[in-house]
Write a structure and sequence with these properties.
The chain has helices at 31-41, 46-51, 56-85, 95-130, 138-160, 185-213, 226-257, 271-305, 312-326, 341-353, 355-369, 378-400, 403-409, 413-443, 449-475, 492-522, 602-616, 622-639; strands spanning 2-4, 553-554, 568-571, 579-583, 590-596, 650-653. It has 654 residues and is mainly α. The chain has a 3-stranded antiparallel β-sheet, with no helix packed on it. The chain has a 3-stranded mixed β-sheet with strand order 4-5-6, with no helix packed on it. A hairpin with a 6-residue loop joins strand 4 and strand 5 (590-596). The protein starts with a strand and ends with a strand. 51% of the residues are buried. Mean pLDDT is 90; it is low at 1-23 and 645-650.
């Protein structure tokens, strides 16, 4: 294996640099080798072939599209609740249906949209950004998507059959226990948690291994793109946080279906154990959603200002610090449960300290903007909206870290407002900016700037009109989860304003979807690098070919596409099989070549086998035996020798 290096033409120093030229030394393969590479990596044609796909780009797009479908469903549920609360003593929804809609909204947004959409973007872009041809474990990647889809279908199937959970998206015991919720509503919800968390853990494993072991030669730890750093950090959090909520939901399912007493105080259990387990996951979950958005903001700012982000090391360390601190403040969700005051004081301090790394990030971004002339594109506007909304949400978060104040507004609409300012402002606005920014890479076409600006304006105004009045409602004592209220409470005007704002927010999302559909049909061709960005995903065509890169690139700086004369390519890799270059974790020095598996139906079959056990166990214990048999068949098929070529210095990875 060798590298070659020759000078190439620099992109012009215009406001919009040209795409990476095709004249990289030896970058283009001979036609017959390129065809061999395409045949080795392409997804099989037809419906059955699509079910067998293990291409990270195909699966990443499926994650994103599926998550956006759930986002729309969750938004419809939110709008239904707002219509119910728009005026006093409204009768649009009854209390039971309102509780189901309330629970499904939170469950959808937290478990079926926010984490999976970030996972989907990571699955699609991390291999491209680190310069490899697929994720480390392609079949595991496909399995993660299928189990996620089956879990979402399971919980929504129950909802449409009037079996939706009605105990809140956090399903506190004893309300969710067998005494107060005797039907299968909570059982369906509890098992759905296992579906989604298994999916998240699968993605976490493959992304971490891909980022550390398949980076392009020369991409040492201090040259990894900031978005990739944010995703690495997030997935380490997933590995430590997700088992806690799986344990909580598993114990809950056992209490309900088997008759254990993990949370039954009459038999020695403890309801607070559930809250500790749930929030040990639940608060890191906020940062699991939020931290990838930090990488998106840095990526968009660098492309918009045409300069490297200021404070690369500080930004990476602040992301890692946020992750560590995120595991030390879950008890601020439990200040009203009567915990020891000394313990509460420690969590108060931790809840305030986490503002420090967030402040570091904000000041690094401000310094990056200082003196620049950023292009006021739609992605950049979403970043500006993120700055305003996230800072406002962070300030109310510091307020809630104070125990006396927290006790006053606990379980009021003030908490609802804070929560949405942090998550929608801190994650959804950067997400829509990133979807606009990366839409050309996903589709090869540009979104309309005019429609994009209208989308941002309507969403920004609608968001603040929706959740701004909720702070006032919380101060006036309006509790969460009430389906109606009396006129003399005086909450009607603010609720009406919030409902109007929710409608505007929905219109903004609809404008984005219209823009995407219109651009897919007749949008302007984007070219390879329309933003003049510096990271490797723009070094290939838009959309990328099945193999991503004809030759693996060698990088020597953090912004390789802005200094293409310093780049080289790897030669000597085979084109007749799914071969990737494996490098060492620290300095990305070439280690060996690995052969990845090809298309397989077994990830779908394995997901189905697990689903049979999780769904069927709600109704009969015999389903576990059937699931075990199917699981065994799936494992045999998964690991059955396929006759993959091994060759000298090559290893096979599934």
């Amino acid at each position: 294996m060798k590298t070659s290096r020759e000078p190439v033409r620099k992109p012009p120093a215009a406001p919009e640099p040209a795409p990476l030229p095709a004249a990289l030394p030896e970058a283009e393969l001979p036609a017959h080798e390129r065809e061999e590479l395409r045949r080795a990596f392409e997804t099989q044609r037809g419906f059955f072939g699509s079910l067998k796909s293990v291409d990270h780009k195909v699966i990443g797009k499926r994650y994103v599209i599926t998550a956006l479908v759930f986002f729309v469903l969750g938004g419809i549920e939110a709008m239904t609740m707002r219509l119910q609360l728009a005026k006093p003593e409204n009768s649009l929804l009854g209390p039971d249906l309102y509780n189901q809609v309330f629970t499904m909204h939170g469950t959808t947004m937290m478990f079926l949209f926010a984490v999976p959409v970030m996972e989907g973007l990571a699955v699609y872009f991390v291999p491209l950004m680190v310069g490899t041809r697929n994720v480390a474990f392609p079949k595991l990647n496909a399995f993660g998507y299928w189990i996620y889809v089956l879990g979402g279908a399971f919980v929504y199937g129950g909802f449409f059959l009037n079996r939706g959970n009605d105990t809140g998206w956090f399903s506190y015991v004893p309300l969710s226990g067998p005494q107060y919720a005797p039907s299968h509503r909570v059982d369906i919800w509890a098992n759905m948690i296992t579906f989604t968390e298994v999916s998240a853990l699968a993605v976490a494993i493959e992304i971490i291994v891909t980022a550390f072991k398949q980076r392009a030669p020369g991409m040492s730890l201090n040259r990894i793109p900031l978005f990739v750093w944010s995703v690495i950090t997030t997935n380490f959090m997933v590995i430590f946080a997700m088992p806690a909520v799986m344990l909580a939901s598993g114990y809950l399912a056992l209490d309900r279906l088997v008759g254990t007493h993990f949370f039954n105080p009459a038999e020695g259990g403890d309801p607070l154990l559930y809250q500790h387990l749930f929030w040990f996951f639940g608060h890191p979950e906020v940062y699991i959603i939020f931290i990838p958005a930090l990488g998106m903001v840095s990526t968009i700012l660098a492309a918009s200002t045409k300069r490297p982000i200021f404070g690369y090391t500080a930004l990476v360390l602040s992301v890692v610090a946020t992750a560590f601190l995120g595991f030390g403040l879950w008890v601020h969700h439990m200040f009203a449960t009567g915990l020891p005051q000394l313990g509460e004081s420690f969590f108060t301090v931790a809840s305030m300290m986490i503002a420090i790394p967030s402040g570091v990030q904000i000041f690094c971004w401000i310094r990056s903007l200082w003196g620049s002339r950023p292009r006021m594109t739609t992605p950049f506007l979403f970043v500006l909206g993120f700055f305003f909304i996230f800072i406002a949400g962070g300030m109310t978060g510091v307020m809630l870290a104070s125990v006396p104040f927290n006790l006053q507004v606990h379980d009021t609409f003030f908490v609802v407002a804070h929560f949405h300012y942090v998550l929608i402002g801190g994650a959804v606005f950067p997400l829509f900016g990133a979807l606009t920014f990366w839409f050309p890479k996903l589709t090869g076409r540009l979104l309309s700037e005019t429609l994009g600006r209208w989308t941002f304006a309507v969403m920004f105004v609608g968001f603040n009109l929706t959740f701004g009045p909720m702070h006032w409602l919380g101060f006036r004592g309006m509790p969460r989860r009430v389906y109606t209220y009396l006129p003399e409470m005086g909450w009607g005007p603010a609720n009406l304003a919030a409902t109007i704002g929710a409608g505007m927010l929905g219109v903004g999302v609809l404008l984005f979807l219209i823009n995407a559909a219109r651009s897919l049909r007749s949008g302007e061709a984007a070219g390879n690098n329309p933003w003049g960005a510096s990271t490797l995903e723009w070094a290939t065509s838009s959309p990328p070919p099945p193999y991503n890169f004809e030759r693996i690139l060698v990088v020597s700086n953090r912004d390789p596409l802005w200094k293409p004369e310093e780049m080289a390519v790897v030669t000597g890799m085979r084109t007749d099989r799914r071969e990737v270059l494996t490098t060492r974790p620290l300095d990305a020095e070439p280690d060996h070549r690995a052969v990845l598996v090809g298309p397989s139906i077994w990830p779908l079959f394995l997901a189905f086998a697990l689903a049979v056990g999780l769904v069927g166990s709600v109704f009969t214990p015999w389903a576990i035996l059937l699931s075990g048999f199917l699981f065994l068949v799936a494992m045999i098929g998964w690991y059955w020798p396929k006759g993959e070529p091994s060759g000298h210095n090559a290893r096979t990875a599934s």
